[in-house]
């Protein structure tokens, strides 16, 4: 169940739909240049490194690190929780791809800078929002 | 030195829930600025504002050029409003360029808001919610995870600064408490007559770590007008003109709240760098600073951007007393948006002019010939250097 029942949801475009829907298959997709393999986020369809227009959505490992975070303490609108962790996670594959996300699966006070995290998805209507939990939550000894 | 100068400033009453029509506030500010410059409405031939009339966020911009020209009966040769550009400073820069290229002689630049009476309890908070629909653009990457308020976005910078530099709430609190003290000498400030101690600051309700209520600026009703004139026309005005020595709106790194490589810096760095590149003045020449404080963390980021101290040193610079009224770089002498109220940067420019004209009374800095003004936070920034001969 979602801890976050009333998320404002993104409008899908041709460029963004793969990112927001691939979680149904458990995949985190990031746009990648066909030629130089640079990851482009947010997706634009144009590679700023090599000027290619040829791109695809590439499944990545789902692993990343907490670049920065903040614990929110105020309920901004009805249906939203008061206390939750907002973070920017840099993906393991490329330092300059940052995903704005929530850190879940741990106490907000346990989140630290550069902490290794791994994606998990939360369904909201027809979308799957990529959220991240501490890597240790996924370790075999913690498996359900 | 640009061929443009500031010749008059005006400000309405500022307050919470004034419940007066916005145009009335704007008229108060405009007439005060005209009298200040020794001009009449007939002298005004240019009009600029930011971001123009729009209804997305209640009270954020009820008036555009059209409404103001009509109400004040202005005849303009040049007008402009734009929501893209160096944010709150764009109408001022555009005005400086307009008078420098002969498109106008005297430009009335305005910012008018009724955010307090439009967003008070029971109405609507100042957050982007998507209004129940699905959201597009940059918001679509932030809102789904509950990053609904600019305080959340700014907090992520503040956290990174705390992590990398060891910046503390006690350090930034020094600036917040100083600004409140400055506001006690500014009769227009929303918190005039309401002093604040470090204890008050440290015990305020947390909003988004490490930003508390007292790290966030105050939505108000109010209006501010700055008149920018061609340098030759400025000489005929009532007061000694304040020259625009340089300005900068550089944006050379990624301009978003989330993708900038170094989260301890913001677009202010790019803007300040581009400003210094156009002038022989140096950071050491600056006597007073007026920098955007929508959130307290923007203050140290602007101080570093202008080069008043090194990277990662601004919180310690503040804690040393350097930015106090009696320090070597009095900063936000009128109280800033944290204590005087949110005029979206126009209040900062207004206060810089008050200082340069020596009109600060109990909050007047000892020396004020050159002022640095920075407007904007996160991906938005414009920088301006003012000088009075």
Question: What's this, in brief?
Answer:
The complex is a heterodimer of chains A (144) and B (389). In chain A, 3% of the residues lie in helices and 36% in strands. With 144 residues, chain A is mainly β.
Description:
The complex is a heterodimer of chains A (144) and B (389). Chain A has 144 residues and is mainly beta. Chain A has one domain (17-139). Chain A is 3% helix and 36% strand. Chain A has a 5-stranded antiparallel beta sheet, with no helix packed on it. In chain A, strands 1-2 form a two-stranded antiparallel ribbon. With 389 residues, chain B is of the alpha/beta class. In chain B, 32% of the residues lie in helices and 16% in strands. The mean pLDDT of chain B is 95. Classes of the chains: A mainly beta (144), B alpha/beta (389). At the A-B interface, strand 3, strand 4, strand 5 and strand 7 of A face helix 5, helix 6 and strand 5 of B.
Features:
heterodimer, A: 144 residues, mainly beta, 5-stranded antiparallel β-sheet, two-stranded antiparallel sheet, 7 strands, B: 389 residues, alpha/beta, Peroxisomal Thiolase, Chain A, domain 1, 9-stranded mixed β-sheet, 11 strands, 16% strand
């Amino acid at each position: 169940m979602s801890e976050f029942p009333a998320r404002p949801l993104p409008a899908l475009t041709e460029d963004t739909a793969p990112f927001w829907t691939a979680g149904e298959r458990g995949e985190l997709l990031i746009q990648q240049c066909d030629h130089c393999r640079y990851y482009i986020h947010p997706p634009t369809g144009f590679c700023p490194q090599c000027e290619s227009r040829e791109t695809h959505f590439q499944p990545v490992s789902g692993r990343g690190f907490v670049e920065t975070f903040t614990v929110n303490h105020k309920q901004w609108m009805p249906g939203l929780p008061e206390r939750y962790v907002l973070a920017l996670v840099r993906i393991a594959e490329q330092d300059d791809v940052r995903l704005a996300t929530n850190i879940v699966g741990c106490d907000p006070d346990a989140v630290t800078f550069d902490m290794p995290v791994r994606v998990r998805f939360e369904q909201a209507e027809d979308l799957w929002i990529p959220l991240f939990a501490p890597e240790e939550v996924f370790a075999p000894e913690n498996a359900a | 030195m640009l061929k443009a100068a500031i010749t008059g400033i005006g400000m309405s009453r500022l307050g919470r829930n004034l419940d007066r029509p916005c145009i009335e506030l704007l008229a108060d500010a405009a007439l005060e600025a005209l009298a200040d410059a020794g001009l009449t409405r007939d002298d005004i031939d240019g009009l600029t504002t930011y971001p123009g009339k729009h209804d997305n966020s209640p009270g954020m911009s009820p008036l555009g050029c059209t409404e103001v020209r009509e109400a004040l009966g202005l005849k303009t040769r040049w007008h402009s409003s734009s929501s893209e550009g160096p944010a709150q400073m764009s109408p001022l820069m555009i005005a400086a360029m307009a008078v420098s290229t002969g498109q106008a002689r005297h430009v009335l630049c305005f910012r008018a808001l009724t955010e307090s009476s439009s967003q008070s309890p029971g109405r609507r908070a100042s957050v982007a919610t998507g209004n129940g629909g699905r959201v597009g653009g940059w918001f679509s990457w932030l809102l789904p995870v509950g990053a609904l308020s600019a305080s959340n976005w700014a907090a992520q910078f503040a956290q990174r600064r705390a992590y990398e530099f060891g910046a503390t709430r006690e350090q930034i609190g020094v600036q917040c408490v100083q600004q409140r003290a400055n506001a006690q000498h500014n009769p227009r400030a929303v918190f005039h007559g309401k002093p604040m101690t470090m204890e008050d600051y440290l015990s305020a309700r947390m909003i988004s770590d490490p930003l508390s209520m007292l790290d966030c600026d105050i939505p108000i009703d109010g209006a501010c007008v700055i008149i920018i004139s061609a340098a030759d026309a400025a000489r005929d005005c009532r007061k000694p003109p304040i020259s625009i020595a340089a300005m900068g709106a550089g944006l050379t790194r990624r301009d978003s709240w989330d993708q900038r490589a170094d989260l301890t810096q913001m677009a202010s760095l790019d803007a300040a760098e581009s400003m210094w590149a156009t002038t022989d003045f140096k950071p050491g020449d600056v006597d007073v600073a007026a920098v955007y404080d929508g959130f307290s963390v923007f203050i140290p980021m602007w101080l570093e951007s202008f080069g008043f101290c090194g990277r990662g040193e601004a919180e310690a610079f503040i804690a040393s007393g350097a930015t106090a009224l009696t320090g070597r770089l009095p900063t936000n002498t009128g109280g800033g948006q944290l204590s005087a109220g949110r005029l979206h940067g126009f209040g900062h420019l207004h206060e810089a002019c008050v200082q340069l004209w020596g009109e600060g009374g109990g909050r007047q800095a000892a020396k004020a010939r050159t002022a640095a003004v920075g407007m904007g936070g996160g991906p938005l920034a414009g920088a301006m250097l003012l000088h009075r001969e």
